[in-house]
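Re: beginner question about structure tokens

> Can someone show what the tokenized structure looks like for a real chain? I only ever see the sequence side.

Sure, here's an example I had lying around. Input first:
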Amino acid sequence: MLAAMSSRPPAGEAGSELPGRGAADACPGALRLHAADDGHLARVRIPGGLLTDRQALVLADAAAELGDGQLETTSRGNVQLRGLAADSGLELGRRLRAAGLLPSDTHERVRNIVASPGAGLDGLGFADVQGWVRELDAALCASDVAAGLSGKFLFALDDGRGDVAALDADVTLIAVAGGGALLRLGRARTARVVPAGGEVAAALAAAVEFLGVADGAWHVREVSSLALGREPIPGFGGRPVGVGLLPGAGRLSAGSAQFPAPLGSATESLCVGLPFGRVTVAQWRLMASVGRELRVTPWRSVVLPGVGAEVLAELGAAGLRVSGESAWAGASACTGAPGCGKSVADVRRDAAAALDGMAAGGLPVHWSGCERRCGHPSGVWVDVLATGPEGYRVAGGASFVDVTREEMAAAVAEARRTK
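And the corresponding structure tokens:
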């Protein structure tokens, strides 16, 4: 029996994140394109995953007219366009500015903000974190110092349900009953108590404090000199991930119900799963057509506020995931070959074939084409690493098994049943 995989590779292993980095942060953005084997890639930051239908259609048009006709969502709720020409950055920037998606050229890569996507829709939560998103985004763009953050630095704004608090963000705000929040830095199990009205200012101040001691580090967890809080996080206990401040929380978290089914009785809304986070322009436009707002989640899904179950059949017919009763729940994969030159296998093709015949349920699972494990989930997950065009290593902790591509599905199914 295979053990479950932690999201933190052992020190010295490829993919480890260590302090004192020697290389500059080359994280792609909307203006700084990344050269991939399938063309150039642009990553558009979408703070809180919040998009109006008009903004969503601007992204669809850019993918159709400048890229390969598809859109990808990331583990931080951002959107990527692939297959771009090397000189398309200027035109893409013009379109994004006109749509309000690029408020600051100098800050565009540091606007990494995730927020509880079900906030205000299902009756859970203690705060309007969507308001926090807008306030924090504006504060980041107004701060000259904040422009120095890495493109990988992450803020998480949790409304108290404990979903995005489980993502190991650099700065996490967790709303509490009665107003105010807990401010957690990195993976600390203690937090600062922040009074109501000061939440966003405290989060930005923590990021600025980090920059003062970063010394080349990209993440808070890579430094030890920050003044961490003294208050234990309620409900956190000794668990490595999650907060769970509210009963019944986590309906949109990785490995749980990240697929449609109405989110709750407060407001009719749906959560639609995107296979490996990648959809066609037509699928994206369909989602934009049924609602006035899209909320891109960090779990390769999109929340459609105010959209009822009557559109599920149409969404499903278009190839979107409309049921959580599937092995695809909690499954993710990197780009793989042929899009990424570092990948040794077409992991999305192989993962899809394995998932289509697999029973529903079990631990999250992530397929990687190389040891960088791009886009892997937080917490506990099954690691499926390509070792060549026809081979995989299915691993968890210190336990692993090397299998052929044909044997991989059975090994993954067994590993996902591990508790």
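Each token stands for a local structural state, so reading them left to right follows the chain. Residues 22 and 373 are 20 Å apart (CA to CA).
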